Amino acid sequence: MTAPSDDLTVVPVADPTLQPQPGWTRLSPRMLLVHPVTEVVKALPAILGAFLAGHGSGDDASGSRWSLGITAVVMVLAMLRWVTTRYRITPEQVQLRHGLVRRHTRAAPLDRVRTVDVTAHLLHRALGLAKVSIGTGTSDRKGRHALVLDGLAAEHAAALRAELLHRPVGPQPAVPQPTLPQPAVDMETELARLDRSWLRYAPFTLTGAVTGLALLGIGWRIVGEGHVDVAKLGPYRAVADQLRQWPLAVDIATVFLAVAIFIAVASTVGYVLSFSGFRLTRHDGGTLHVARGLLTSRATSIERSRLRGVELSEPLLLRAVGGARCLAVATGLRVGRGAERGGEILLPPAPVADAVKVGSAVLESAGPLTAPLVAHPIAARRRRVARAVAAAVAVGAAFDATVLLAGWDTALLSAPGVLVSVAVALGCDRYRSLGHAFVRGYVVTRFGSLVRRRTALVADGVIGWNLRSTFFQRRLGLTTLVATTAAGRQRYYVADLADTDAVRFADTCVPGLLDTFLRQAPP
Amino acid sequence: MTAASLRAPAHLVDPRAKVYWTVRALAGWLVAVGVQVVVWVAVKHPDAVHPILLAVTAVVALAHVLVMPQWRYRVHRWEATDTAVYTQSGWFNQERRIAPVARIQTVDTQRGPFEQAFGLANVTVTTASAAGPLKIHGLRRAAADALVEDLTVRTQAAGGDAT
Predict the structure, then answer these.
(1) Which one, A187, A198, A206, A335, has least CB within 10 Å?
(2) pTM to 2 decimals?
(3) Residue A371 burial by CB count (10 A; 0-12/13-18/19+): exposed, middle or buried?
């Protein structure tokens, strides 16, 4: 085996006479239809820019000529990409060769393959194609991207995925599973499947708010760039006139209701688009598979050796209606890029009980997600409330100053009072969320109010401790313990513990590490 | 469970670090003061605004430059054992970081222009986690090189993929 020391190597091929050897195959020729379209869409800003620039220069034809020229060049380059790309699968490696001027060969050793993700956007699906991304676990750090085969026939992609993930030789032969000999047939256990009734949680996910803001941004740009006079638009005038006739309170209520309805509808549509056909399964070898998506279908896998834990996340609104999401804490998966990014979601917004059930099934232990947590010292509440109130007071003061300077209705001056009481409630809730425990080999910590997260991180996945204390924390005898890890969010906080408890907890979770640094207390 | 608290790491950094921190802080404040002076000359605001702002800056700068290096010197400590690296840093806000040697990925030493002038170097120990590399500032160059050498040998001996 001549596996290179790097997980994923990029070897610029110096010798241009090196011809593709037998076994090298091109990606699906149907990609000749996909690449030009996607590349032109990507280059659209430049094309539009050229068009507008030409338009603005007075010579109408030049803008069109330039934009057409750019489009043609982009399309030709896109097609060349297919011509110059070849791949092959040897007994040891997956190899991908691409590049017109500088030829590159990328190679991923088969025994290092950790993820094989199959995605297909709308165009892919219309043509029966799929994109296969092959990752080697650590490859997505520091710019070393996964090896991507963009455009195989869908059935070929699925077969390749199965072959790479479930080869008879285990991915880590050094650590044999202490179980029965593996059966020859691929066996999958279903852990979760989308339930239609979960759709009732969709309006509370607020993903629609992001869509709304994006649309608002685009609208704003069009209005600004196109010199559209909003006041002259029929629908806008009709709405504005109507609002002017009603009293202020009714206006506020109407706008609020309209925004709420929009967000609810957009969130629901987003939920359906993202999670239709959601299915979480576990292969016999321990690999988790997530498949989902209505228009763009995704199939992601998380190998057992990469899984470090599970996170239960409850955004405030979702928590209010008894819903929660379940996320995987795994190395090589970036958390926090939204539901569309990464394959970390193990369960879309669903009833808390289901989320706990799925999380426990993934951990193969119910304790970490259900065990009672140790509350934090009461001084932590003071800190949380003080911080929330300080922020509210600052915002409130700015608001009052604006009211006074702009000469608005002085009744508005009392509005920040509401803000401050909300801040107090928020601080108290943030304190109530705080908790930690060490359960069956898992470091469990919970915090947050707007998004409350309970994370169970396997103790072996903790690769260091940070103990932070600000000046004010030291006065109260508090420490924030941070478990660092190579997975998920990279750091998990156990906020505002009593100094001694922080050390004790760290020592319990990872015995031995702190031994030489401990000061023994007198008995 | 008699463990009550962590003791501080064993080693102080080099005393010259105090001078280095002072110079670095002064340089930062000089830039801030310089910008204010330029604005004062260029823009004609009501008379009192600029002198007051400058005076406030000067007082804050003086306090920072006098207090911070001494305080920081008392906090900054480090220790490397066979199994773990332990650092303590900060001044107003403090942080202790502990990483097992078996999980160390890289050990680097760096010398900025100011550090070079004082014959100092800093050592950065990274793990597979993006959260919190361990940094030891203000070591004497020879000590930094020795530490890097030492940790590299121990890390290699520990093996594993450190995730």
Answers:
(1) A187
(2) 0.78
(3) middle
